[in-house]
Design brief:
The chain is of the alpha/beta class. The chain contains 13 helices and 13 strands. The strands form three sheets. A seven-stranded mixed beta sheet has the order 2-8-7-6-5-3-4, with helices on both faces. Keywords: Amino-acid biosynthesis, Aminotransferase, Histidine biosynthesis, Pyridoxal phosphate, Transferase.
């Protein structure tokens, strides 16, 4: 049997004036009364996340071929993918050759992308000092916001348009002031001017041709906006298909203009993520300081440089897509429940009419292996967007559509 040790105590004089005993028992520590425990909330990882990001909805991106293949039960080559404005012809053959003979993938890339910027200077007609390259134009959009916006600052957005602007503003704790486009998708310049005066947004993001409708911004309209006290970011991701000249060289004249471009559409390098932009020298200095040092991979720079070595291929592909756009438009006009909008890009926006549900139309075509884009936002709930593909892709789309009427 184990016996408990005897209770230990010591006597101490009492200074009390009461009639209690001059000596008191001193309780051992184990015998002290327990204080009530404070109930603490369990520590969770999300408590470290910035509050505005906990409320952020993720960007709704397009599903890749592998996921689509599994969901649809079809081989990737049996899917007609007309939902992401990708270039179906692929890059020039020089790209595959250059990637196959890549010598130094184990060495960090040039943080200044010197070779590519030099090639872009020749291609665009503006000196390399004005050009910055990014991991897709998306990275440059975010970089601009990180350099320009304080939390609580405002940007001006003109929906419907590329939703990445609104998304990146939310990531950077900025507020979005919206000036909706007119019914023909043109910009409401008068209202833009009023909002700039009243709300004092720091920058406005404009796309020309605009995604998702394919409309362009004429020089007169752009000049009016450039005369406002606001930074203008002009996204020219689809400019090659428009027949109008890029405004990259305008950044030498306008201190409040940035022009963004991409290799995703023109050179079919969407999977390698190569974007670039032209910036006033007074702005680009700070973007150089803030950008990630190795943001453009060795493979991406090699591929982009190789693509620029074959301008004839790039031109021929552009011409083929523009011609197919016109053919696709005529076919879509014949569909009784579609109202296509003229486009200067490599896609066509269609209003779904005659009581048809746009989302169901997209789902019905997907079951037949044809993917088109539908939007969940209210401005475009009744619309679908169709990317321009090869002639055989148009034929497959039209064959599937005819089964629905």
């Amino acid at each position: 049997m184990i016996l408990s040790p005897p209770l230990k105590f010591k006597l101490r004089p009492s200074c009390s004036s009461s009639r209690r005993s001059r000596f008191e028992f001193m309780h051992p520590p184990s015998a002290l009364p327990l204080k009530e425990e404070i109930q603490l909330e369990p520590l969770t990882g999300d408590s470290f996340i910035r509050p505005h990001l906990r409320k952020l909805s993720p960007y709704q991106s397009i599903l890749p071929f592998e996921v689509l293949s599994t969901r649809l039960g079809r081989k990737p080559e049996d899917i007609v993918k007309l939902d992401a404005n990708e270039n179906p012809y692929g890059p020039p053959p020089e790209v595959f050759e250059a990637l196959g003979s890549m010598r130094f993938p184990y060495i960090y890339p040039d943080p200044e992308s010197r070779r590519l910027r030099a090639a872009l200077a020749v291609d665009s007609g503006i000196e390399a000092d004005y050009i910055l390259v990014g991991c897709g134009a998306d990275e440059l959009i975010d970089l601009i916001m990180r350099c320009v916006l304080e939390p609580g600052d405002k940007i001006l957005d003109c929906p419907p348009t590329f939703t990445m602007y609104e998304f990146d503003a939310a990531v950077n704790a900025a507020l979005v002031v919206k000036v909706p486009r007119n019914s023909d998708f043109s910009l409401d310049v008068e209202r833009i001017s009023e909002v700039v005066e009243q709300e004092k947004p720091k920058c406005i993001f404009l796309t020309s041709p605009n995604n998702p409708d394919g409309s362009i911004i004429d020089d007169k309209t752009l000049l009016k906006i450039l005369n406002l006290p606001i930074l203008v970011v002009l996204d020219e991701a689809y400019i090659e298909f428009s027949g109008i000249e890029s405004k990259m060289r305008w950044v030498k004249k306008f201190e409040n203009l940035i022009v963004l471009r991409t290799f995703s559409k023109r050179a079919a390098l969407a999977g390698l993520r190569v974007g670039y932009g032209a910036f006033p020298l007074s702005i680009i200095e700070y973007l150089w300081r803030a950008k990630q040092p190795y943001n453009v991979s060795v493979a991406a720079e090699i591929a982009a440089c190789a693509a620029l070595e074959n301008p004839v291929y790039l031109e021929n592909v552009k011409v083929a897509l523009v011609q197919e756009r016109e053919r696709l438009f005529k076919h879509l006009e014949e569909v009784p429940f579609l109202n296509p909008y003229p486009s200067y890009s490599n896609f066509i926006l269609c209003e779904v009419t005659s009581g048809r549900d746009a989302k169901k139309l997209k789902e019905d075509l997907a079951k037949m292996g044809v993917m088109i884009r539908h939007y969940s936002n209210k401005e475009l709930a009744g619309y679908v967007r169709v990317s321009v593909g090869k002639p055989e892709h148009t034929d497959a789309l039209m064959k599937s559509l005819k089964l629905l009427y």
